[in-house]
């Protein structure tokens, strides 16, 4: 392209490029690119001119060439597919693009589209040897960054992304490699954010983001097998749709503090088989939708009971520490809401968490709740025997209950037989009758005080003796079963 073919606006950019100078077409500081159609030719640049400038413009000795343009309307397709621009950065801030830039496979030092308005962005399989800045952009079509390698950070703070129905994800970062942070606080997105297989050396920051579901699939964030070496932050975010982290690895914390996750008809968070350093669910409203943590491994589970939804899926969930410290009565509803029904592993995990901090009382309550929950899965005769063990000794966790039963029955029998002595079997040979030891002889199936064999109650006292003998055997059996279960746990 000849310099004589350029408009005055394009000539300004052409001359400034070689010296790395900034060209600002804005009429006043801070003017945005909301209405690019209203701008005249004095602020309009043709995309083919920018392409020719980036690919072939001469450079001045001693100067670092760079494209720094603000507040321009860029018409036509900017097609730099597989271009090699590793010698100078590109900054097109607060610009209005009439066509989607096609930058597939491009290699460049740094790219900034800060505050610009675009109908989409094609930047897949690119290599950016620096930062990629899309801060404050308004993009009304898919942003394609799949397979892109960014040696610095990706900035998306205050950006607004949307994709027409059926156009695909609003932001696609499949298999992308980001060597610093994915920095996107206050991001507004309507449609899916896809991070499958992506790798982020720093953190993913989506604090105060407002994310709405994909119209067709209900997906907000699909991040299967995502790797994050830092934190994944969704603090104070509002998410309408489901977040998928199946198989993801987050070395730091997954922070959902103060967040509102809503997807009532399906899962709100799916983190199956994920590996997470810390999972924070705190200081927010209850999650609307299912919490699915099947087979996930979490080092620190920071969960306030009020944030848990009505349905959870925690089969195979493993965690080392559970905070904040709450009574067992506050933690047990989480296990009772498991959509998989009775899951013994979940009770064992909670028991182990309490034992690690020395709260043996809470650990025993969890084990008692486990046996009661298991009882509901048994046939009628198993449930009946379970009720007996529970009433007698609390499945071995409340042994003093058996002593209470024994004292109560001993008092009843002693009073009854003291008021009316049973007749002796052999009047001349019978020992002196003692109602207390006679009742003990009936209650204790192993120990004998010589009273039971010497006397023969009649009528209602005989019926009472049968009850005491039967109750004694039941108590003894329940105590033995409870003690055995206790020793097996040690």
Structure description:
The protein has a 20-stranded parallel β-sheet that branches. It has a 15-stranded parallel β-sheet that branches. A 3-stranded parallel β-sheet has the order 2-4-7. It has 9 helices and 38 strands. It is of the alpha/beta class and 490 residues long. Helix 6 crosses helix 9.
Task: Give me a quick take on this structure.
The chain is α/β, with parallel strands linked by helices. It is 27% helix and 25% strand.
Please supply descriptive tags for the structure shown above.
490 residues, alpha/beta, 20-stranded parallel sheet
Helix content: 25-40%
Shape: rod-shaped
Report how far the terminal alpha carbons are from each other.
84 Å
According to DSSP, the number of beta strands is 38
- Return the average pLDDT rounded to an integer: 86
Classify the secondary structure makeup into a structural class.
alpha/beta
Number of helices: 9
Largest sheet features: 20 strands, parallel
Radius of gyration: 37 Å
Report the β-strand fraction as a percent range: 15-25%
Uncertain regions spanning at least 5 consecutive residues:
none
